[in-house]
Amino acid sequence: MKNRFLPVFCWLVLSMFWSTPQMAQHINLRNNDEAISILHRLSMKYGLAEDMHLNLQPALRSETVVQARKLLENDSLQLDKRDIEDIQYIFDDNNEWLTYPGLAVTVAGKKYDGTMALESIQSPYYRKSKKPILGLFYKTPPNLFEVNKKDFFFRVNPMLNGQIGVGQGDNDSNLFLNQRGLEMKGGLDDRVFVYFNVLESQAAFPSFVDEFYDKFNSIPGAGSAKKYTSDIFNISDGYDFLTAQAYLGFNLTKHLGVQFGHGKHFIGNGYRSLLLSDFSNNYFFLKLNWRVWNFQLQNIFAELQSERLVGDRGFARKYMAAHTLSYNITPKLNVSFFESVIFSRNNQFELQYLNPLILYRTVELLIGSPDNVLIGFDARYNVAKNVQLYGQWIFDEFKFDELTANTGWWANKYGWQLGAKYVDVGGVSHLDFQVEWNQVRPYTYSHRDSAANYSHFKQSLAHPLGANFKELVTILNYKPSKRWTFNLRYIYMYGGEDPNRNTNWGSNINLPNVEREMDYGNEIGQGATYTTNLFSAVASYQVFHNAFIFARIFSRDKVSDLATKSSNNLFFSLGVRLNSPVFQMDF
Question: Is there a domain that residue 584 lies in?
Answer without folding.
Answer: no
